[in-house]
């Protein structure tokens, strides 16, 4: 368990894309985010109080989250120096970077000396089983996508929050680093060994009998030639009763692959349903989530309406316009 | 590189299923298999000369292959003791077991002291890239299956050998432990981290311009809920021009999953073609391979004929009846 609340690290970042994890925490877990740490050359803010490590500790922070990504996911000298200072000030360290905290001797030595914890959220737990595909109790929703990074985590978190507001038990099941830090638990699916992808999802969303929903964060896309294997195993392990398809309408091509166009929404829906039926024959689609953050509001509203009419499914930008219509659809004819 | 020729280990085994790797080597690489090592309580043989370690070394053997599988893939005390004795006699050790040779201090110490090599073929190489899906030169065939363990490796090796006999350049690309020992190279796909599945296949079957074929060993099945993610990533990474569908006609249910029936052949073919088209729009199916080893010959011949008529594709048991008709189909209208 990672101790909360968090101090969110921005470091020297000046590219909004680099602080995705820190921003996700500020947006979805303001309750456990006491402040932000940034150097004078950092031009970004999360709108949280700026604190140094000692002030953050005094304000109750327990863990510094290195919620930034730089090229290659490297732990640079700047990050190491800051992490050492944070530990001296009494903070644990959590990181979703590719390069592991626990692989840096200066950090492990300081942690041992000071009694601090180093959390590499990209390390899967060691006891992940092979999936068995056995039908399990409970209701599960999975977000799927036309591409990577189209808003699956945001959509899933918005759905969890909307269900809770209606008094429906709902648990967000994280499959990526940011989601794991938001939820305090989950599996870094992209780091799991190939034979265990579906088993990892069975493990983090076990049978439930309280009538509530597991809302599982999707990864990748069946149409992304680099990562479709992850998406396929996730789909099978989730045994979803409901799917929400996430899409970025201004994405010019599949992420990182200028030679691949995005799939048609209806075709992508059908491919996901076909694959999902292997482990749950009753799977259905309950909505479309569009990330319209790059569009003016009137255009975004018009596009949602047009998409809704074309596909016959509630369509929204979850973060901008809410997910009420999708939740209505989800609860309207839900499985017993 | 693993030094050849091999001494094939049977140990104390009395279950034919346990010696699958040693048997695969004896069948497909008699040229590099000088003998078999078995204890007096082993009731199995590969039909090779029985040798102790010193005799094998004198006969030219360079590596003892621990080509057996026991429950859990464990390196038991019996295996460790035999591996130590083999190293003393001058042999390297290779293993596809889940538990790694290099994780056993008694083995690593002896190897260092004696100048011997320990090969864990289940360890992927460290430099596997993320797949990029870019079309690459060359012709590639991939075996796919209705299930795990339905003869994909045997079929792929039979096709490689048949093409070579016709003077067509053909390379077997291994994706499992036995295949890697047969070929001397390849990737243990089930041990690769999820994000790198398709990249691993792009790496082991790079662009080729000599007019020859890469014959890629398939793994799992799009219809196996535990492992479909591996099969999906493999399909995308392979960019196959041609598929051969492998099937075990007497399999009562999906391997290890009594609650899952095997898919219909035509449906399974269509699902594989649909997924494969993402990275190669021109993919086609060139044949069906049935593992009829549990059937009398007349029934096997009748089933092949019936399947061929139903699906309109050359159908054979590759190991029993050869693959000439499938190779005819493959070469008949091959891509330029």
UniProtKB/TrEMBL annotation, chains A, B:
**Domain D-glutamate N-acetyltransferase-like C-terminal per the UniProt entry, residue ranges:** 130-327
User: Which superkingdom is the protein from?
Assistant: Bacteria
Q: Which InterPro entries match?
A: DgcN-like, DgcN-like_C, DgcN-like_N, P-loop_NTPase
- In this chain the D-glutamate N-acetyltransferase-like N-terminal domain maps to 46-124
This protein is called EBNA-1 nuclear protein
Q: Which organism is it from?
A: Sphingopyxis witflariensis
């Amino acid at each position: 368990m990672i101790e909360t609340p968090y101090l969110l690290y921005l470091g020297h970042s000046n590219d909004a894309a680099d602080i995705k994890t820190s921003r996700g925490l500020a947006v979805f877990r303001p309750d456990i985010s006491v402040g932000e740490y940034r150097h004078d050359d950092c031009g970004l803010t999360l709108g949280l109080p700026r604190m140094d490590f000692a002030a953050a500790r005094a304000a109750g922070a327990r863990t510094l989250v290195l919620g930034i990504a730089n090229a290659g996911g490297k732990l640079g000298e700047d990050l190491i120096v800051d992490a050492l200072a944070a530990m001296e000030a009494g903070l644990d360290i959590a990181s979703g970077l590719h390069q592991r905290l626990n692989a840096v001797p200066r950090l492990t030595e300081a942690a041992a000396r000071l009694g601090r914890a180093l959390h590499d959220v990209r390390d899967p737990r060691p006891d992940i089983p092979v999936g068995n595909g056995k039908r399990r109790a409970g209701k599960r929703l999975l977000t799927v996508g036309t591409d990577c990074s189209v808003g699956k985590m945001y959509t899933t978190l918005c759905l969890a929050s909307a269900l809770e507001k209606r008094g429906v038990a709902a648990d967000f099941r994280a499959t990526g680093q940011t989601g794991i830090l938001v939820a305090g638990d989950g599996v870094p699916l992209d780091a799991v060994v190939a034979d265990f992808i579906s088993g990892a999802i069975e493990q983090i969303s076990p049978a439930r009998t309280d009538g509530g929903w597991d809302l599982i964060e999707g990864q990748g896309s069946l149409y992304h030639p680099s990562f479709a294997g992850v998406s396929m195993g996730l789909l099978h392990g989730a045994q979803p009763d409901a799917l929400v398809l996430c899409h970025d309408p201004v994405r010019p091509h599949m992420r990182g692959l200028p030679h691949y166009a995005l799939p048609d929404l209806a075709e992508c829906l059908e491919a996901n349903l076909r694959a999902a039926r292997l482990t749950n024959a009753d799977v259905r689609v309950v909505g479309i989530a569009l990330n319209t953050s790059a569009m003016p509001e009137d255009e975004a509203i018009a596009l949602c309406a047009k998409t809704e009419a074309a596909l016959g499914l509630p369509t929204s930008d979850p973060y901008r316009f809410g997910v009420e219509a999708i939740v209505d659809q989800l609860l309207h004819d839900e499985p017993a």
